[in-house]
Design a protein that fits this description.
The complex is a heterodimer.
Chain A lengths: L1 H9 L8 H25 L3 H26 L2 H18 L2 H43 L3 H56 L1 H14 L8 E8 L5 E6 L16 H11 L1 H9 L2 H16 L6 H8 L6 H10 L1 H11 L5 H6 L2 H4 L2 H4 L9 H4 L20 H5 L10 H12 L26 H4 L2 H9 L1 H4 L12 H16 L15 H10 L36 H9 L1 H4 L12 H11 L20 H14 L38 H14 L16 H10 L20 H12 L16 H15 L7 E2 L2 E2 L2 H9 L15 H4 L2 H9 L19 H15 L15 H13 L2 H4 L18 H4 L4 H7 L1 H4 L24 H17 L4
Antiparallel strand pairs in A: 1-2, 3-4
Chain B lengths: L1 H10 L5 H27 L13 H26 L24 H6 L5 H22 L15 H25 L26 H4 L13 H15 L1 H9 L3 H34 L13
The chains are: A mainly alpha, B mainly alpha.
Chain lengths: ~950, ~300
Amino acid sequence: MLGWLKKRNETPVEERSYSGVYAFWSGVLFLTTIWAVWNEVETRRPWMVYLEEFLEMKSDLLHKQIADARQSIDNDAVNALAKQLSEVRAKLASADAQKMRAQIDALKRKVVDYTQQRGFEKSKVDAENYTYESSAREKDSKDATEARKERTDLEKKMDEYQAKADAVEAQIDSITAIMAPWSAEAKSLQAQIDSIRAPVLALEGKLDFTKNAPVEIKQVILEGYDRSNWGMTKSRIDRCQTCHMGWSDSTFSGTDFETMLLREYSAAGKYVERTYGAKIAEPVLEVLASAEFGEQRDYTGDLENALGDKKGDAGMLLAKLTTDREKVMGMKKVFGVHPDLPLLKQHNPEKFGCTSCHAGQGMALSSVEQAHGFEEHWDSPLLTSHYVEGSCTVCHGQRMDFAPYAKYASMGRKLYIDFGCWGCHDNINIPDFKVMKQGPSLRSVTAKLTPQWMYTWIKFPKAVSHTTRMPMFYLSDDEVDAVVTYLAQAADSSTYKPLAATVPAGDPVKGKYNVEHLGCLGCHATKEYPATSRLKEGNSFGPYLSNLNTKLSKPWLFDWLRNPKHYNPKTRMPNLRLTDAEAADIAAFILQDHGEGVPAQDHQFKDLHSKEIADQGFKIISTYGCYGCHEIKGFENASKASVQHTDFGKKLVQQLFWGTVPEDTLTKIRRYFADSVGLPLGKAVNAHHDEDWFTWTILKLKSPRIYQTDAIVQRMPSFMMSDTEAYALSVYLRSMRKDYIAPRWSEPVTAVQNDLDSGRFFVHWNNCIGCHKVENTGGWVQDRIKAVEGVADAQYLSPPIITHEGRKVQEPWLYSFLRAPSPIRPWLKIRMPTFGFTDSMYTVAQNYFLAMSGVTYETRSYADFQPDPENLAGGNILFTKFQCIKCHQMGKVTDPASLAPDLRLAAGRLKPEFIPEWLRDPNALAPGTRMPSFFPEGQSPAPDILGGDAARQMRALRDVVWTLGKRKPA
Amino acid sequence: MERLSNFLEIVTQPDNIPIVLLLVLTIFYAILAWKKARRNDAAGSPAEAAQSDRVQVWPYLVRVEFIAALIVMVILTVWSFSLNGPLEEAANPTLTPNPSKAPWYFLGLQEMLVYFDPWIAGVVLPTLIIVGLIAIPYIDINPKGNGYYTFKERKFAILTYGFGFLVLWVLLIQIGTFLRGPGWNFFMPGEYWDPHKVVPLTNRDLSELFGIPTKLVDLSINPVATIFGAVVCLAYLSIPVIYWRMKRGTPILQQLGFYRYFTTAYLFVLMTALPIKMILRWTLNVKYILVTPFFNI
């Protein structure tokens, strides 16, 4: 080469030939051009591979479906009809028929001819008419008269041609009439055949459509959906459906699809397909498909059955099945139907796209990673698994829950409320911590607890009470000492003192009975009835009752039980209207040694009266934000101790501090959450260090001080969360985003929605749902009642379902009832407590009930409602016939098992329009009620009364009940 | 291994390809020129003198140019589709990229910003570069070295230009591209560009090294420090004058004459001020030499 160059250099320029060099580089440029085209249409369009694969799979599946459909239709009928059809067609094709058709053709030609000639005459007419009109205007009467005459002649000619054409048309009709029945018959036969073959035809149509499907990018444009970083309105473009084509296609679900996935993408499926004949392969593949996609169970037996004499292969096949699992599942995710089509009915991807919920880089098509946003420069990676629930709030706003969807996000939100996260972190839609506190007030704490016990508790709360939500702050001995010193001194100024000087002795046996029957178990757990959840709801709402003997003094407990608001006016513990004896009994029972009380450590305080130590305590309390959950004197105007969470879900990896956590530890932790616990996390955005938002958050929740370094002090306490709790909370935290979404794309905030939301918070905050069922949740006390009473069905012994309270009870009644409950169901042992709600809290409850029932508040006088006197006679007959009085006993209580509320209360309590509604279908309003349905499907059982009009009969019964109420209860 | 992958990650960035090419090509052509110059200098007469003569533009030059055009087209085509545009996040005014780098051809200027205030590094020095380049034909009175390679006959011109271009321009671009990471911190080749890297900021003014505080107690500028800085600067700027006084009798200076000499000398002195400041920064952590209430140097 070099030699050649050297020699060439010695040749004079004029004598050198460049044709070889030119040919070579021209060739290279040509190839480069081809390469460029190839790069453009193939290399840069990986989505086409998916499209082709999709269409191929779809036509294969359709072919199979068509074959199946052909099997299932009535082929004999089709054949018979086809035979008839061919006879008719033969008639239509006979020589006579052909002759007739030839005649018709000839005649039709004539018609065309005549029509054309008529047309010519018509245009001449128009021309003459023009001459006439223009001449007449110019007063040239001679020309006008001539033209007029000419026109009239031509019009006659026109009519002649019309008559000729009509005559020929008539001829045609007469010939057609002879053949018409045959054609009609052929048509009807074809229609019959088609109707039998309809399923096949539909599939064939689909197949045709599939074969001719265009190769194109499918995109959804969400006009003006987003805002850019510069505040400009911006459309969002989603091209997800270019690859995910089967999301709504029923062809891509079910056994056929699943076996096909195995056949195409798994070693096991390929092996089966290759090795066994079609007869064995089909059933074997089906079993394998259910082993892969069905419920988790052992399929070896089924597989052996399907394999027949080859059953020795079962183990090998199942082992092979696991090797390609990821790929097969992946392909199912690419092509398969979306797992929740009903949800998509409300969120049509054709309109809303996919990224509005799932995030990811919607417009990217160049690779799977890019499209899913798993790359360094895309800030919102695909939300895998339950993290997608973090997107609901983007359009719908922060809500208490999105039942029945977004379970983890709702659970996370409840945890956020119940763990008191909002006490230290600012967050929209969570109540102000200055008004409400998650923990008890510490204003008079020394009247309740000894400093030693407080010391023991703060040091490590879980050691004292295993179910507590009070977190551990990793405080040193001296720090706890200082905190308790401050709290003790702050409580010194309190004027609280237990009211009763002496406490009756009390009988623990009776106390146990009262605890189990009066409703304590609605909110509290005991050794016998342990807590069922870590959320602050049901019986884990209040403190655990079986370890209090080392904590509380009897005078305080007695005072507390009789009137909790005396010690703490803001407490959520309601007043159960206990008598002194009842309170003393319960106190005696609670203060018994249940074997779980942890004795207070014998800590020697440095000096409980030292101002200096108290000042240190003050600083520690300010630093750690104890006042976020507890009312503490001196912190009335403190602001929240930690950072805002309002936009936490949008934080970027670069904005999170990772401390000194080594890379390999992070990798291990990510893998742990992704694999072992089954909580898939997003891929790392910062691939360099395996860092992503999800890992950071979940790790922070599990181990709050993990990112602490010498320079960066962290103060978050440990809540000892389980993996699931941390996961749910991280899902909720992901939902905290102040994304701007254009109003037309987001759901407007309605008053009803606000009422529902505040109400849901209210029933959770006050644990109404511990005893009552609302909106298909709660009422857990029933489980305890079942256990205590030893019955299988405890609905009639439990507090009522209150979902429909809004349409059911009169607003004034509800108000007075909540202020001072009076028994409706005298057979219930459990008591509706007096909560002492303020008027604004009452309003929240009232609005919630109304919103749940879809009714609006009306100012009305219920006392003025007048029963229709014409209904009363018939109503009374029905009242007797239905034996209402048998259960609705008025005054005397006998057998609790068959009792119903006193009907005399109805007129003062129920809304008049509710009773007919209730009578129509009691079970719909209160599932499990013992009230029988007298009007099954709205039909009257007594056609002879009041004209058999069911609606009127129901109104009549209401009128009778209403008159009962007019009498004073005995 | 990790160092290598860190290094390769930066070197193979699509937008760094031209800078790698720049490095390779400048070195290649500098060596080539150097070799040819050495050969000519050793031989006593330039080899180019032996090569003769002219050929017709058409077709002998045009055909070669046409083939060159073909080759360039091949390279550009392959380049354009085999390297993707280096897109990053959507621009966000509240979240700017780190490091924020100028276009590669300005990275030398950006590097100067480390050592000088913007008005010097961004305005005065670039203007001087342009003015100096314009002035070359007028101050270069050496007729030798036209049409052939030589070093011996043009030592000053070649050394000055080599230093000004290869070191102060090309090298600074390379440093700005490959060794300056997040926060414009200096990273060794292969070191991971950690955005959280912290380097101590311990620069002091030159006067402070001599025990003269730059700022008074009320944080106003100490006039003594200003005078000190001014003296140092004037001393530096008086070097051409002293040299003139010492050597004005020599034939070279005679030929140059007063005006050409001082234009050349001050362009040269100002160019050399840049590496001097850089060395002072690296060795003594000098922040400013001259501090005044209006500007700092």
